[in-house]
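REQUEST FORM: STRUCTURE PREDICTION
Request ID: SP-0412
Submitted by: Lab K.M.
Chain count: 1
Length (residues): 189
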Amino acid sequence: MDSISSNSNKKIKNLVKNLSYRHHSSHDSEQSIPFTKRNLEDLYEVSLNLDRKKLVKRVQRQIHDLLGKAGKTGLEISYLNEVVGIDHQIIRKAIENLTKMKRTIWLNKNTIALIESIKFISGSKYSVSVEKIVMGKAIVIVNEKWYASLEPQDYFGPRALLKKGNTFDIIGELYRRAGTLHLIVKKII
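STATUS: Completed
RESULT:
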């Protein structure tokens, strides 16, 4: 079972219902419901595939964050295998999914990079330091001069960089709204 069907949750619920050991009838007498070894194998297989799917998604996020930090030079697959430290098939599947979603591009046969890091994006270059994370936004210092608010809808970069004390270079724009300076992060350099 390589792919998980969209109704796999229904399958699990149905199998669990069929595998319940006791069933109360209208006469309140308990009867055993027969179940087969095949049902148990199906349940186990669906459970393994769901776990594998969750693992692939987690590895996708991890690879995306690493590629975001690497910039336009990208990373070699062998380096990703070392850093992530999970089965090569899962890493390959995560990279295939990122490529299929048009998030990554192959620079050569061994190196991948984020598409956003390769494209030309208009804007100015700024140095950004994360001062504080508050509910729904981040307070950042731009070019060691100005305090600005960074809203989630204005940030197009890896979430892992938005931690107190992190400093990174970006391409973006500044704008003023309701007397407050805001920053749009278009690309992490």
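NOTES: Confidence is low (pLDDT under 50) at residues 1-6, 21-33.
Reviewed by: T.R.
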